[in-house]
Here is the input.
Amino acid sequence: MNDRKVRVRFAPSPTGPLHMGGVRTALFNYLFAKKHNGDFLLRIEDTDQTRYVPGAEDYIMESLAWCGLKVDEGIREGGPHGPYRQSERKEIYKEYAEALVKSGNAYYAFDSAEELDKLRHEYESKGENFIYNASTRSSLKNSFTLSDEEVQRLLNSEESFVVRFCMPDNEVVTENDIIRGEVSFNTGLLDDKVLYKSDGMPTYHLANVVDDHLMEITHVIRGEEWLSSMPLHVLLYRALGWSDTMPRFAHLPLILKPVGKGKLSKRDGDKLGFPVFPLLWNDPFSGEVSRGYREDGYFPEAFINMLAFLGWNPGTEQEFFSLEELVENFSLERVGKSGSKFDPEKTKWFNHQYLIRRSDEQIAEQFEAILKSKGIADYDNAKVIRICGLLKERANFVSEIWNQGYFFFQAPTEYDAQVVKKRWKAETPQMMKEIAEFLNSVDNWDTAPLKEAFSAFVTGKGWGFGAVMNAFRLCLVGAGIGPDLFDICNLIGKDETINRINRALNQIRL
RNA sequence: GGCCCGUUCGUCUAAGGGUUAGGACGCAAGAUUUUCAUUCUUGUAAUAGGGGUUCGAAUCCCCUACGGGCUACCA
Here is the structure.
């Protein structure tokens, strides 16, 4: 059993865009698989026809691809254990549902949803819990209480039925979760879960166990919301005679809201202004658009790095990990037990760190698309690369480089009123005029010599540097921001520098 | 309500019986930058509460509180 090849699966249901919590589950599955030279499968759990959302399946696959999580077996990749879409495996589940009935581990039930609902309310009003299990099943409509003939008649009729698991009474099921250790449940408190629905589809529980077995899954790594289903699943493996090859379980802690209580939801993103989905999502029903990390300008590497640290840590002080390094260092033992609040600020910081580590050329490539969107087509590629190098320290995203350096590409059209008030004095226009004349006489426009000549000129005039430089910057930039002024002069060129001074002289009024 | 899981700075976390409880984000201050940002330095701030066990407990046990998940013919 220990020599089995590690095989894990990520098994989302296509009910909408993949939440970042889902991406993290996929990530941990992927990391665990690759760490152990195993396989990472993608299985689509679309057994609930009513919740199917067109496009969600492609969205899931595109998200994993963007994150660099390569799927070994799945609906696109194929593989020896297909199909990998549960709706295409209906016949398989039916077979196992029947086998469970035959072996006495499951039974047919004919109670309608309305009848059950009514019962639940009755119990509730008495302050009690209704549980469909050993305590109640003998008084309900099922193959325990009905005669064989009646059951056969109902099964052959139009009457709908479900298959329920026969939960043993008062037995303690203990299972060793890799993250949580031993967890015990008393089956007397559990209910006879529906395994097979009246629409001919299995429920999650049956489909999941059957597929994990058939696909030779060795480790089930999933969210904590499944922890309470663990005893049912353990019992199903037993009932099906698969205990020997039952996978190990690892239940991941949840990702919580940045502020307030509860798990992270789409609402939080809207409210606090950050994406909760990896990719932009266009809801086919409501037309509503949800932001995505990709479209917001995050690097997948930064997104993944941040996600990995939500619940996992390497135990060292290293905080930047490539996907390969994560694979190398990952272990489920170092995954925490408690939920983690998501921190959008730290996510930005991660992106900043990845941005400054990128080469200027790579950044320039992305930035050029932004330039085009701003209507700037005529630019010198080498200069753009230099500009990106100058500005990347100041930005969290490539897109912010524009706000940090628009003035490299277009002259300011307005002048920051606050800066004007503070830096543009009565004597300033005269100084600027003289500076323009001086600059016109400068031949060597390289940054360093220009700076040197300029300093000599200002010193010779006996002017204060603070007054000159800030006013000069206002002329060139229109505000009190930006990198070294002589870098700006050099990059925009001599003529443009002088033009901008003249322009400011015309436009700035006290 | 019932069952299960959890609880270290505001946040992510380290420390798995003996540390001045460490790091990171954030925030604050100082330095550098004649701008702004960056960068650097420093500071800020935590073992939920109460009982045990022990020479010694953030670490082990119990209780309480709080948080979370599940409690569907949803996953």
Q: What stands out?
A: The first strand of chain A starts at residue 7 and ends at 10.
